[in-house]
Fold these 2 entries.
Entry 1:
Amino acid sequence: MGPVSTTSLSEQLILKILPFVHEAGSAYFDFLLGADAAAVLSRWMLRSSSEVSIERVTLLGEPSDPVGGFIALSGAELSKCRQMDMAALTMSGNRSRREEVAKRLELTRNLFSPVEANEFYLSKFWIDEKHRGAGHGRRLMKSYISAGHARGLTRFFLDVSAQNEPAIRVYRSFGFKEIRESKVPEVGLHYIAMAADIAS
Amino acid sequence: MQSRADQIREFIHERIRKVASANRQPAPELHDDLNLVETGLFDSLGFVHLISGIEKEFNIELDTGDLGPEEFTLVGNLVRAAAESPAVASETDKK
């Protein structure tokens, strides 16, 4: 009899897509979560109440070798999920770690704009490097917009690293406009908030 | 005499009342099933400050063990976890 695997399908999928989810939010995650960011994210992905829950991931292509994917949720869900994630982070260490978390949250508290309850927020978006340049980004964006429309939402919102020019070009081509720029120069964080009204 | 758990519960209730008052919001009905996140009174930083406040007031290292955030953000679970958390050595003890 062969060895018995105790890894669930969710865990296997998380192992596969974790590097992409991490990379998609790396600047902020690495600052906030520190050296063990990937390990923290993998735990959060298993929790339904997390912004990065595996249950919120939409993949393009075969799950065994996805071309890319995205995580999107309404502003109402986002607010609660982010607070649950920050509560988890708060309780993940000792008192001195909590003091450090408080300092990092204080520094970044205005980095991201509040998202309205009826906006559909693109939290993470990625295309596997080996599949880039083949139009998959546009297919995924269409899938994101369709998912918003399926929920009855027509206002779309995202934050993107200001250095990610290729992504910004794709978002602009779908009608997204820059509405806010925010920086925390002390730690090198620089984001642009973009929004679009897209009727179904 | 109030038990330690009752003192911690009262501390949390008082914080909720103070934050609600500062935000000019009515205080929610206070009970053990109240979820601190769902009150909308504590943002991420506010929750860290609440936890740090409990730890300083009761001189403990708050340990919520295996509870997930959906669980330890409930007042009753937070009170129980805090009441069972170990005390930390005071500065005087360390000398």
Entry 2:
Amino acid sequence: MPPPSPPAEERRATDPETWLGAYGDYLYRYALLRVRDEAAAEDLVQETLLAALKGRRQFDGQSSERTWLTGILKHKILDRFRRQYREVSLDEAGVDCEGEEFGMDEFFAADGHWAVKPGDWADPAKATENAHFWDALIRCLERLSPRQRQLFVLRELHGSDNEEICKDMEITATNAGVLLYRARMSLRQCLEHHWFGRVGAAEIR
Amino acid sequence: MLNCRQTSQLLSGSLDRSLTLRERLALRIHLLLCDACARFARQLRFLHRLAAELEARSVADERVKLGAGARERIRRALAGEK
């Protein structure tokens, strides 16, 4: 690869010493939302800034410095997910991808009917106006199995499409579909229990 | 005829890929006849739309800050690399 032409003076990344102060909290929050582990989020911020320091000359000024750093962080998170995906215990792997097919689950009876029909969420858009709703959503995300959460984060937060997810995580489209399905089913049920159920509904009013 | 479990699987799939004509038709028929799945479909779409706002709120959440210890550790690591 030919070396990139030196960027114009005004497009060069600012002094790395300012990054931590200017973007540290932002990058930390971005990482924490995705990995739900404070120590891991701190490590990711460090890895990101170190990588940025090394690759400083590649910053082309086409995007903002924060966007550039966030892009590096996004890749670091993906690397971490890929490593972790292979490390989860056999027990959990069994739960998550038994034969990679949609198997039996607790949501439906044997004949395919709802075990418990979805409840009435009234006006869910209204819930989003309540700050506690978002805390409940994050708690529900934390309850997902690591693999389900990883896939959910990649699809819904990173915005990766199916093809990218399969390539990045080295899994089949069926497996990705099953994990996303279970993540969504569990999140929906968790929010119904912990928010849209009676207690939550009373809190919204 | 789809059952409710198959319907929920197709609805989740429709958020990630384009369904075939056959799948879309089967889905539409089931949703016309089944209130529970129609409700589920609305809830699933609602969850799907939450992601962008969750992101925006989380990165702006003043309660969440990089701790002083971590900040110092990272500052030293950066200084060591220069």
